[in-house]
Backbone:
């Protein structure tokens, strides 16, 4: 069996197969532990943005959405700070709702909150907001890139500051995951627009051969193995059993029933994807408190999955055990009656990532060595290239990100260049292997915790948060405070 | 009278009017003082470059020229350095021939020399090298921009280092004028590709309202006034006399004869441009030794011009005096019989600058206050915009350069960000007013000399060079040496 799924932060590459669960809408479905407690509020604005910053042959513009909260802002007269979230590959409201940290520290800093949506996502769709046109072919999609997005952020922030006559208000950028990569790159490329960046779980080193393509799945393996050796073995052994069982029609029907797959569609590949998705995203969102980022999940969901697998009640039936684990991810609320493998809905509007992965975001993640919890496989650039060719008629540029943003020898390069970046990584996060895990200089620092999953620090806080998480946030607040002290001092000096 | 000429480093904006002098070709016409003394040698190479780095809808490539000299190189095994000239708005051979400094210090540093031609100039023309197509309209010209050029340099340098297996060879970039702006920006944007930049006479602050639009002509005024008050007064007074004289046909014919203009064409505007050109470029190239950058010129040509004006032999005839000054610039060799105001030849291939000035390079320079040596005028953005609209059908983006590269509050922004940039400026250079004239940090330093014109430090050295110029070069060599020490040390450490 060969499992070749290209994992891209929040969305599978192809095929996209989400299970059918009751439609979720933020913030109504927030559960208590991560609720906004009334703090989540923003107004929606649109900015007329240039479609192509780097060529001049195209006067087209589009409406870029950004969310604003000035409840805590100290105002332009006080040169009070501006916190900007550099939006990632989806609806900005979704990321805003899941970035409670910014709301929670805004009062302390008297900060204006701005969440900017990434072009081609959410409601920030070029071509008059018509997604059908914008996503129709490589010519229209050609304007979807990280460099254009960063130039968007610079343009919008400068314009906003001018409009608010807040020229001297320092800007700090925040982001998680791809948004964290953008935040870090934004500080590096636009130091005249932002004084510092908090880049949470930003795998900026997952390009070229900087990071091993086995790193991602090694960490997932370790997450499960660390909970229970048996859990790891059961999952690892299940793939062969599924493969064998799927060889006959009757076997496939048995699999369908075991995993409560709806009657409309099943295939071996789709089932494997469905399970792979569950394991990967559970590892990514292995938070210490209940969450509802992708699906509603209990605290420490990896532990819960392994508990289901290790449960003596499930006997020796591997499928039943694996189903129990998958059920944690797909059906924690218990509302699902069956799972639709043919459901390609995209509630958070993440589809554009496939294009980005076919152009610049070539992030080798799907290597699996012998010990992997998933079947052995190698990262194969040519497969990606073929997919992209047939899907979009484009050839990826696997060296572009390291050309434009660097990454090789980052410690040497940034040791005496740049300043004011925090790289946070929790080592349970599969992406952490491609993050910056060591301090580079006095002010380009790595905060690393043994615990912690994908941008856990940016979540709404909770009474139940463990001590290490509280310490991470405290440290982040302290560092940002120092940036401001330095900034306001230099404002007086120069 | 209104003199509205938009000055762009080396070429007038419109109309372009160079005088007819015998065709000049480098290096054959080098005079002794700036000759290459046999050191000038290079081989010509071409690199297949991506036309559009920032969009993915265009797979087109073009052949980018670069010149190479490995005579002094210590080789990849020794991680010996690479010196790269970031080409400006013209034929790269011309800039190479006028950047003797790099050849002269290459032996000391065992450096490989690379001179990269800027896209759309010289032989680096997209669309199969066909300038007629490349320059035909805004769609094809759209790919001519500084951001694309910087990405070209990054891509080419990385590829070259890979091909030479010289991954650890540190790269230092050099550039003068627009090339100096590119060098500085390249260090800021691509610190992973270059460890430092020597940005000579780089007016990176001539954007938005960072620098006064009067600065440029104020410096020219000072250059001439500093030589002789009478010289300044005669030039300043001449414009009104020309204007008055040009009102009649007979008067225009008298002007034609006074200035030895060829019979084929004269107009008041063209004559004024012709004189303005002479004063501006003489000030820019007011070098302490004879030069042949734009035209063959004696040492200290401003002084020579004023000598001609102050010469009692020329009596009281203002036109004769001004002609004597212009003759220094246009006819130092004495070969010209008449000057053709209708000559639009472009020996150094600078025409693309008009496009750049109509898109991103909106550099306000043509303000003239009451004291100016030129007639009073204001910088008027709308005039530029109208010209660009009618000429190319584009609207400039006057805020783009400060959005993309910064400039406002540069001292505050770079005080704790970035490193290893030398900004050289000679204060006789009209562009120096928009240069970085103060140290920003320990390693972002300004070398400023009271004497010295446009990128004088990059010229071939001469026995006749004044002490201050030798000291500038020594200091530059020392600073670059320190970059290497630091780099090689960190190579061992990390």
Residues:
């Amino acid at each position: 069996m060969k499992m070749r799924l290209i994992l891209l932060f929040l969305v599978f590459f192809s095929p996209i197969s989400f299970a059918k669960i009751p439609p979720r809408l933020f913030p109504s479905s927030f559960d208590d532990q991560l609720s906004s407690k009334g703090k989540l509020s923003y107004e929606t604005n649109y900015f007329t943005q240039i479609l192509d910053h780097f060529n001049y042959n195209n006067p087209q513009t589009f409406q870029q959405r950004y969310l604003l909260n000035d409840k805590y802002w100290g105002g332009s007269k006080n040169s009070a700070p501006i916190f900007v979230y550099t939006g990632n590959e989806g609806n900005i409201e979704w990321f805003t709702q899941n970035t409670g940290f910014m709301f929670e520290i805004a009062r302390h800093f008297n900060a204006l909150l701005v969440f900017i949506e990434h072009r081609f996502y959410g409601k920030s769709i070029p071509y008059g907001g018509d997604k059908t046109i914008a996503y129709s072919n490589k010519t229209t999609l050609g304007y979807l890139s990280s460099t254009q997005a960063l130039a968007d952020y610079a343009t919008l922030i400068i314009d906003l500051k001018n409009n608010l006559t807040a020229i001297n208000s320092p800007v700090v950028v925040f982001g998680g995951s791809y948004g964290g990569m953008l935040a870090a790159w934004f500080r590096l490329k636009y130091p005249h627009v932002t004084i510092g960046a908090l880049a949470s779980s930003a795998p900026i080193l997952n390009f070229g051969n900087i990071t091993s393509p086995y790193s991602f799945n090694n960490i997932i393996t370790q997450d499960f193995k660390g909970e229970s050796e048996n859990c790891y073995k059961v999952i690892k052994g299940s793939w062969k059993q599924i493969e064998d069982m799927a060889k006959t029609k009757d076997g496939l029907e048995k699999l369908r029933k075991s995993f409560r797959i709806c009657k409309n569609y099943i295939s071996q590949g789709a089932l494997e994807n469905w399970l792979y998705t569950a394991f990967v995203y559970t590892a990514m969102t292995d938070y210490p408190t209940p969450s509802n980022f992708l699906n509603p999940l209990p605290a420490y969901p990896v532990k819960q999955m392994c508990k289901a697998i290790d449960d003596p009640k499930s006997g020796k039936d591997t499928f039943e055990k694996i189903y129990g684990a998958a059920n944690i991810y797909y059906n924690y609320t218990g509302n699902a009656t069956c799972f639709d493998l043919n459901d390609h809905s995209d509630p958070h509007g993440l589809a554009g990532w496939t294009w980005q992965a076919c152009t610049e975001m070539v992030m080798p993640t799907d290597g699996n060595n012998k010990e992997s919890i998933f079947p052995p496989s190698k990262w194969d650039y040519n497969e990606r290239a073929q997919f992209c060719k047939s899907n979009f008629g484009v050839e990826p540029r696997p060296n572009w990100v390291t050309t434009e943003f660097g990454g090789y020898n980052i410690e040497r390069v940034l040791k005496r260049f740049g300043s004011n970046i925090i790289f946070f990584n929790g080592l349970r996060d599969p992406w952490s292997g491609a993050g910056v895990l060591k301090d580079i200089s006095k002010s380009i620092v790595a905060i690393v915790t043994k615990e912690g999953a994908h941008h856990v620090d940016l979540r709404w806080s909770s009474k139940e948060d463990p001590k290490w998480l509280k310490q991470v946030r405290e440290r982040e607040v302290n560092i940002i405070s120092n940036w401001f002290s330095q900034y306001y001092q230099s404002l007086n000096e120069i």
User: Anything to note?
Assistant: The first strand of chain A starts at residue 7 and ends at 8. Chain A touches chain B through 59 residues (CB under 8 Å).
